[in-house]
Automatic annotation (TrEMBL):
Belongs to the TsaE family. The keyword Transcription does not apply. This is tRNA threonylcarbamoyladenosine biosynthesis protein TsaE. GO terms for biological process: tRNA threonylcarbamoyladenosine modification. NCBIfam families: T6A_YjeE. It is found in: Cytoplasm. Pfam families: TsaE (PF02367). Keywords: ATP-binding, Cytoplasm, Magnesium, Metal-binding, Nucleotide-binding, Transferase, tRNA processing. The gene is tsaE. SUPFAM superfamilies: P-loop containing nucleoside triphosphate hydrolases. It comes from Thalassotalea litorea. GO terms for molecular function: ATP binding; metal ion binding; transferase activity. The keyword Metal-binding applies. The lineage of its organism: Bacteria, Pseudomonadati, Pseudomonadota, Gammaproteobacteria, Alteromonadales. It comes from the Bacteria.
Length: 156
């Protein structure tokens, strides 16, 4: 299990890091990936996802899916799904929304509060922990699959 840690200076550095991840998955190439995002409210989970979505070619807004549970982005040939499970009362609710349909080839899923979907969500390829350290963010990546390891190897 490979692990890598960075300090990001500010919000823009977090967006840029997300863009760098997008560039890597396109260039490696990785056909699909599940990323679990961990961190307190305001730690930068949506900010990092915004950078990834923009790095995949999206030009519009990237908003938090706190109330919708998922925001889809169709970016031919890829699809990016940004999940926020914070408000999920029971993991079983994911079955009702057809969660398994989201995890297909050419799909990248970024999942905030993944512990709320325990037992229903597929295995993660990469875990990204974000936390504030004074005015900066510490980001820790943990590879949980070959795809995750490929990303960490390219970031080193």
């Amino acid at each position: 299990m490979k692990r890598l840690q960075f300090i990001l200076e500010n919000e823009q550095a977090t967006v840029d890091f997300g863009k760098r991840l997008a560039e890597l998955v396109i260039n490696i190439p990785i056909k699909s990936m599940v990323v679990f995002l961990n961190g307190d409210l305001g730690a930068g989970k949506t900010t990092l996802t915004r950078g990834f979505v923009q790095g995949m070619g999206h030009n519009g807004n990237v908003k938090s899916p706190t109330y919708t549970l998922v925001e889809p982005y169709e970016l031919e040939p890829y699809r990016v799904f940004h999940f926020d499970l914070y408000r999920l009362a029971d993991p079983e609710e994911l079955e009702y929304m057809g969660i398994r349909d989201y995890f297909q080839p050419f799909c990248f899923s970024f999942i905030e509060w993944p512990e709320k979907g325990t037992g229903i969500l597929p295995a993660e390829d990469l875990i990204i922990d974000l936390e504030y350290v004074e005015q900066q963010r510490r980001i820790t990546l943990v590879a949980k699959s070959v795809n995750g390891e490929q990303i960490i190897n390219k970031l080193v």
